[in-house]
Fold this sequence. Notes:
It is a single chain. This protein is mostly helical. The radius of gyration is 15 Å and the shape is elongated. The longest helix is centred in the middle third of the chain and has 23 residues, at 40-62. The chain has helices at 2-9, 16-34, 40-62, 65-75, 88-101. The chain has one domain (2-101). The protein has five helices and no strands.
Amino acid sequence: MTAFDIELSRAVGADAQLDAWIEHTRGLAREVASAPVPDASARRLVTTLLALALQGSLLVRHAPHAVADACCGTRLSGDAFGGALVRAPALTALAAPARSVR
């Protein structure tokens, strides 16, 4: 888990929603790992949350701001799980690179 934690730490400070998600997920991972016999569904949930944290970490460091912001805003904010479509202005910004390729 150390290498994974280092990878997540590289993005800390880039997005407040991602920071909160990482901290919450780290806490859940510690809880599940310390259980005498971790529940299978808890392990799956933590794995999914860690995957979303890694996705956010990679996006805030390597993707255009609009893409990273949309991911963190819809997949990692509050009780969001899996995400929802963002409002139209953000979608316009996300589509701009695709329009310039034509």
